[in-house]
From TrEMBL:
The keyword Disulfide bond does not apply. This is Sugar phosphate isomerase/epimerase. GO terms for molecular function: isomerase activity. It comes from Mucilaginibacter ginkgonis. The keyword Ligase does not apply. Pfam families: AP_endonuc_2. It comes from the Bacteria.
Length: 287
């Protein structure tokens, strides 16, 4: 199914039902929503304490870090970074890791020491064959064992390439089928799933309790329908992804952590975008 057909046929995208009606149907909410710090990386580089204070005041309660220039703890001891986050009402749930930062098991040990829940592989890149993805699945199982030994969960964040067929198969399907459900978890990026013409609800329900985290941004209708190679992301509630429905389905199927990650900005700064997205999450009603 191409992307245009998916948009026209799927009930997952809010193309016809007004947002106000969606929000009024049921009172269920997501109370603990978070933000991926890559979104505000420049601000964190300049002033991590001040940036975390601003995020806490916006209403975020969880954060996800990443392996940037200063490492997942932003140049601080792991315990100091945890305390800084907690002092601003933020819980460090997870982080994307960087293989070049330090030995993997050492990163796992540091994360487990401060009560983090997940360490997540953010990128493997397109591969030449489906067998390459099977080898990656084997690698994920091994790293999942290491994480489990330390009381941590191992995760993978698919971008667009796992939703592109190789050898007649979708790599995301191969990864899900060849990784141990008790060792490897997945972080759905709703933007990539939708822009690649796939059905998020299919994956959430077929692979119940596998997609336990997510990244959220929205996508502009006119850019998606035009078949642009360079899709335009936008702030939550300004595009066509039906988050009131999808997040409700996700929560019922094991998803527990919801991270905003906007990557493009129009007339606002990353912090202004973070505030817009926090307001959306605060007012969101699930249907």
């Amino acid at each position: 199914m191409d992307r245009r057909s998916f948009i026209n046929s799927s009930g997952l995208l809010a193309l016809s039902l007004p947002a106000a009606k969606l929000l009024d149907r049921v009172p269920a909410r997501i109370k603990n929503y978070g933000i991926q710090l890559y979104m505000v990386r420049d601000e964190m580089e300049k002033d991590a304490p001040g940036t975390l204070a601003k995020l806490g005041k916006m209403g975020y309660t969880e954060i996800e870090s990443y392996g940037g220039n200063k490492g997942i703890f932003w140049g601080m001891p792991n315990t100091d970074f945890k305390k800084l986050a907690a002092d601003n009402g933020l819980t460090l749930i997870s982080s994307h890791y960087n293989d070049s930062d330090m030995a993997f098991e050492k990163q796992v040990a540091l994360a487990a020491q401060i009560g983090m829940k997940y360490l997540i592989c953010p990128w493997k890149g397109p591969q030449k064959s489906i067998d390459d993805f099977k080898r990656i699945a084997d690698e994920f199982n091994i790293k999942g064992e290491i994480c489990k030994k330390h009381g941590l969960r191992y995760g993978y964040h698919p971008h667009d390439y796992p939703y592109k067929k190789i050898d007649g198969q979708l790599p995301i399907d191969v990864l899900l089928e060849n990784t141990d459900k008790d060792l490897v978890y997945y972080q759905m990026d709703f933007y990539y799933t939708v822009t690649e013409g796939q059905n998020p609800q299919h994956y959430l329900t077929k692979y119940k309790d596998r997609f336990t985290l997510c990244h959220m941004r929205d996508v502009l209708k006119h850019r998606l329908l035009a078949g642009s190679k360079d899709e335009s992301a936008c702030d939550l509630g300004q595009g066509i992804i039906n988050y009131p429905h999808l997040l409700n389905i996700a929560r019922k199927n094991g998803m527990a952590h919801f991270f905003v990650e906007q990557s493009r900005y129009f007339h606002e700064t990353p912090l202004q975008s973070a505030a817009i997205n926090a307001r959306y999450m605060k007012n969101l009603r699930l249907v």
